[in-house]
Amino acid sequence: MAGKIASWLAAGMIGAAALSGCNPQSSENGGNAVQTAAPAEEEFNPRGQILALSCASCHGTDGKSEGIMPGFYGKSQVYLENALKQFKNDERYSTVMGRHAKGYTDEEIKLIAEYFGWACQQTTN
Amino acid sequence: MDHKFTRRGFNKLVLSGIAGSTLGAFGAATPLFAAQKHVVVVGGGFGGASAAKYIRKLEPSIAVTLVEPDSTFYTCPFSNWVMGGLKEMSDIAQTFDILKNRYSVDVIHDLVTEIDPVNHSVKLKGGKELKYDRLVVSPGIDFKYDAVEGYSEEVANTVMPHAYKAGPQTELMTTQLKNMKDGDNVLICPPGNPFRCPPGPYERASLVAHFLKKYKPNSKVIILDDKEKFSKQGLFMKGWQRLYSDIIEWRSGSMGGKISAVDADAMTVETEFGPEKGGVINVIPPQMAGKIARDAGLTDSSGWCPVNPITFESTIHPGVHVIGDACIAGAMPKSGFAASSQGKVTAAGIIRLMQGKVPAPPSLVNTCYSLVAPGYAVSVAAVYKLTSDGIVSIKGAGGLTPMDADDDQLSEEAVYARGWYRNIAQDIWG
Ligand SMILES: Cc1cc2nc3c(=O)[nH]c(=O)nc-3n(C[C@H](O)[C@H](O)[C@H](O)COP(=O)(O)OP(=O)(O)OC[C@H]3O[C@@H](n4cnc5c(N)ncnc54)[C@H](O)[C@@H]3O)c2cc1C
To answer: How far apart are CA B420 and CA B158, in angstroms?
Structure first.
């Protein structure tokens, strides 16, 4: 059924670049996930960006929290990766975070941490 | 810091070189470069404002115009808290100043009356016409008033509020609750699926019950439900048993919950088991995508908008992206959190498309907190990915507050519910 996903991608790509970046492969979360390899010249991995954008809805834009949720802006990539894995493996107490972290493969967690590492180095606007 | 000369860095340089006097003025009417790309966003709610902010934040070379009739947007999230006496209207008011001033989104307070997907333009009620390279439509919902005999927009605005769009409707129901005679009952009538915010009516019942317990001890809440089951049912039922056992009564569709008509003069609703009288009657009618989406032919026979799940581009009109409650997003519920998540994914996707690059496959999330009482909240969470079956929730992730959660955990969730509101409002409008 990868054909259906390819057609969604193709539909979005009218007039844009070729589909060579699309590389469907199974993931540990049950197969059929779509992965796109980042072209080498990218400044950040677009897949990491898409994954990371989710975090801000509870932790604030760029992880700058104004509420009670812990902010993580400025934390290192290693710290973020470890923390997310601990939540995922129930090694760290949480109410909701563990439920979220279980939705990501270790590879995706790495991409999220990398993206925030990158984003933090950019001047925010 | 790395001084590698990236495209983004280049854009920033270009912009900072010329922006000094033009910041806040890169609207569609005065594009900076002839080739500057322009995105128009219809609706400044959870989906639309998220998309507008994130396009500008992630790619400042793209101009964004946001069209929204109201200069203050009242959020449905936490509007039930207002009814319960736990928040004020001012606590759920969001404005567009930061989008305008900090993100240089050109915000126009007007109504889009026409979309021309062939010529890539929209018409506004005030007479303006805007051209777009890509359009984002996030108009929320409208109600099928005629699904309930005797109900109408006028009845909703005067006698029996739906309170399912926040603002005057929230105020009407809150005032009615305050003025209701002790001993009268509050009727809450939720629709069948799908509808905006599946746990919404049940959080409402909880917080209305909290209010009644304090101020109208002889009154009850009767939920006349179209359905046989509802979101977070086990957790709500448990909370009701603990806190409101003789206040809240839930009637399922097959147990007389279905309503067919209302009588605004008699203040009754018609059920299969006869008329039911209420002091406050909250009718939440079945729903469909907002009018502009229907008028533009973006809906299918279900009344909602089919979209490509990678970029939320309409499968009917290319170049038009539909997000939020109005779109069909697989397993995702119609929630503000989901709408915002879709808005960000769409922002990233539009940027890649405009750069001639492949959009990354989506990753989406949702968390819905429901307050059962002050210091007592429950939640449901999910992470979504794209498979050949469309957008599905990832097995083994997400889920509900555990049924055996102790009081500490329930009260922590209530604290986090407030934290969530503050941060998502900041992430969207701040
Ligand atoms: C009681 C209640 C409680 C809720 N609680 C929660 C919660 O706790 N958490 C959660 O995540 N979600 C919650 N929700 C759901 C949430 O409110 C919606 O899912 C969310 O608002 C959907 O976002 P949207 O962008 O699709 O629409 P909206 O946020 O409704 O925004 C639509 C906007 O489009 C504008 N518009 C419409 N037509 C036009 C036009 N022609 N031209 C210009 N502008 C137009 C409207 O004025 C409006 O501002 C709740 C809902 C209710 C009713």
So the answer is: 33
Find out whether A58 and B425 touch, Cβ atoms under 8 Å.
no
Question: What is the predicted ipTM?
Answer: 0.89
- What is chain B's mean pLDDT, rounded? 93
The best mutation among B42, B74, B76, B164 to test binding of ligand 1, ranked by most ligand atoms within 8 Å of the C-beta, falls on B76
Q: Is B424 helix (H, G, I), strand (E, B) or coil?
A: helix
Tokens found for residue B74:
């009242």
Residue B360: C-alpha distances to residues A5, A19, A47, B11 (Å): 12, 11, 5, 22
Q: Do A9 and B310 touch (CB under 8 A)?
A: yes
DSSP letters spanning B319-366: TEEE-GGGEE-TT--S-HHHHHHHHHHHHHHHHHHHTT-PPPPPEEEE
Render pLDDT for A63-78 as a digit per residue (tens, 0 to 9): 999 999 999 999 999 9
State pTM to two decimals: 0.90
Neighbour tally for B261: CB within 10 Å: 13
Taking contacts as CB-CB distances below 8 angstroms, the residues of chain A near B363 are 50-51, 54, 108
Is the CATH code 3.40.50.620 the one for domain B152-283?
no
Confidence at residue A13, expressed as pLDDT on a 0 to 100 scale: 52
Say how many C-beta atoms besides its own lie within 10 A of residue B380's C-beta: 22
Where in chain B are all domains bearing CATH 3.50.50.60?
A: 7-69+110-142+287-360, 152-283
